[in-house]
Write a structure and sequence with these properties.
The complex is a heterodimer of chains A (417) and B (134). Chain A is an alpha/beta fold. Chain A has 15 helices and eleven strands. Chain B has a five-stranded mixed barrel with strand order 4-5-6-8-7. Classes of the chains: A alpha/beta (417), B mainly beta (134). The structure holds zinc ion.
């Protein structure tokens, strides 16, 4: 357990539009993210100044039939011949890539590196994507039993509800909040609140002369099995992050050189990572992710900060229950009180602890290998006061929490302006 | 250390004979289920096979309406959901398995903590571990 041997700062960050793009491959997606990150460096940067690429990617082997994506992407964006590599830790791939990039700069091996991620998921039909995602769980024992990714988080949800009395309505409130945030994010896959989606369905029914649903509000809409079908009980469609194409890129520099590139560097003040068994049945508890608690503890210790010091966070809400568990594992709320915190509005943009102002994985989208670094893009904008309509006033300390699989990997970073 | 016999394939061989076998640690007594080459508690490699009686408690579960392709091939889907979950077989031995005999049309009726017992389902010549209400 240690500290960074020298300071590391984020000097640029960017992401592609997230969504379903039949006309784009990983190459164009990553180039889109990289170019935005490249152009975001205040005082400019040359591609030759970027010494290495750490790229998160989960399963391009199957999605595109293309591996060796590290050097491929480095070549696309003109940063060869330096080191370039793909990092795979399921949905935590680019959070882990970020950590490795931070450690590489802190060690003195590199002064400036790019970290990022890319995933192109929409080529396959849903049942095949379900297969691929489930391969991040235990393929020998969980998958043959019928476990799917939503199914595993559903197991966590059922355990959380039984132990703490967490309610399905509280899960739905996570989705409502994150869609409200996503509506303000031009990069989000779903730029619409659940209320907007509900109204659009009503208008569509009217226009087609079909029976008009009489949902009073979002909660009624989300309780209607026709509008919000079960995916894996108790999780319904609007509890699940979507299948997404997208990419993210972040440029890191050593503290000594960061000010050459920008007057507003965002420092990485804490990094932590933990691991656990892939299979839920090999764990002692299902209502908390040990890997997340380990990662958070190390990141807080390194930063010399406590949960109360974090002013804004992007957490891994691959499913609505995951956000509730995340806010407990990070120490923002006591175990079992994450659901209540959502209900009380504490995690809204104007709450005490704004969570997932980007829209989160739920509304922004979840291109698996790109999600971890995309979280940093939001925190970078927020800490620089550049988050537009989503801006939380005067935030200086932010956190990202990126989980792989059903919690076998977790990586947490803390950033400070 | 010699090559371990506590393998996935041995576990599956036993399962095909309707036996749930775990790797019990000779040093600390931990019942490692599924079996593994090193004890999950003390990391020792002196293990022995023990048969579990298939009686356990339901720890958690889900009912899946959007299956992977292998279960689509078994006929499951939105019109025919299936249940799976984690079962505690005692002494800390837990495993993920298919659940049968539960009212999947009313998942809210499925209670955590209830007693279950093992069942063995043959699918395409392979044996799948399942549990039903005891
Ligand atoms: Zn042992």
């Amino acid at each position: 357990m240690g500290k960074l041997a020298r300071g590391v700062a984020v000097i640029g960050a960017g992401m592609s539009k997230f969504g379903a793009f039949s006309d784009k491959t990983t190459r164009e997606l990553f180039a889109e993210a990289f170019i935005e990150a490249f152009n975001s460096v205040d005082n400019g940067i040359e591609t030759m100044e970027i010494e290495a690429l750490f790229l998160g990617n989960f399963s391009n082997d199957i999605f595109e039939g293309q591996v060796h994506t590290g050097p491929l992407m480095a070549d696309v964006v003109g940063i060869t011949p330096g080191p370039a590599m793909r990092i795979e830790d399921a949905c935590a791939s680019s959070g882990v890539a970020l950590r490795l990039g931070v450690l590489a700069v802190a060690s003195g091996a590199h002064d400036v590196v790019c970290v990022g991620g890319v995933e192109k998921m929409t080529n396959l039909e849903t049942s095949r994507v379900t297969d691929v995602l489930a391969s991040a769980a235990d393929a020998m024992y969980e998958f043959p039993a019928g476990a799917t990714f939503p199914g595993l988080y559903a197991e966590i949800a059922n355990a959380h509800m039984k132990k703490y009395g967490t309610k399905v309505e509280q899960l739905r409130m996570v989705g409502i909040k994150n869609h409200e945030n996503g509506a303000l994010n031009p990069k989000a896959q779903f730029q619409s609140s659940i209320r907007d989606i509900m109204r659009a369905r009503i208008e569509k029914a009217k226009a087609r002369g079909l029976p008009v649903p009489n949902w009073k509000d979002e909660m009624e809409f989300l309780s209607d099995p026709a509008a919000n079908p079960i995916v894996a009980w108790p999780l319904r469609l609007f509890d699940c992050s979507p299948i997404t194409d997208g990419a993210s890129a972040v440029i890191l520099a050593a503290e000594e050189v960061a000010r050459k590139f920008t007057d507003t560097p965002i420092y990485v003040v804490g990094t932590g990572q933990g691991s656990d068994s892939l299979a839920l049945h090999d764990r002692d508890e299902f209502t908390s992710l040990r890997a997340a608690r380990i990662a958070a503890k190390e990141a807080y210790r390194m930063a010399g900060l406590e949960p109360k010091d974090i002013q804004i966070a992007e957490v891994h809400d691959c499913f609505t229950i995951a956000e509730i568990v995340a806010t407990e594992d990070l120490g923002f709320f006591k175990p079992g009180e994450g659901g209540k915190a959502v209900e009380e509005g504490l995690t809204k943009r104007d709450g005490d602890k704004p969570i997932n102002t980007s829209g989160g994985l739920k509304a922004k989208g979840h291109p698996v290998g790109a999600s971890g670094a995309a979280q940093v893009v939001e925190i970078w904008h927020q800490l620089r006061g550049e988050a537009g309509a989503r801006q939380v006033p005067s935030v200086e300390v932010g956190l990202t929490h990126n989980v792989g699989g059903s919690g076998a990997s977790c990586v947490v970073h803390i950033f400070r302006r | 250390m010699s090559a371990s016999e506590f393998t996935v394939s041995r576990f599956r061989e036993f399962l095909s004979k309707r036996k749930i076998m775990a790797a019990k640690c000779k040093k600390c007594g931990t019942v490692n289920l599924p079996p593994r080459p090193m004890c999950k508690k003390c990391h020792g490699t002196e293990l022995e096979w023990v048969e579990l009686n298939g009686k356990g408690k339901l720890v958690t579960f889900s009912v899946v309406y959007v299956p992977p392709t292998s279960l689509v091939a078994e006929g499951y889907g939105r019109e025919k959901p299936y249940a799976f979950g984690v079962v505690d077989l005692g002494q800390g031995a837990k495993i993920t398995a298919r659940l049968t005999g539960f009212d999947v049309e009313r998942p809210e009726s499925i209670r955590l903590g209830i007693n279950v017992e093992a069942e063995f389902l043959e699918r395409d010549g392979k044996m799948i571990l399942a549990f039903k209400p005891a």
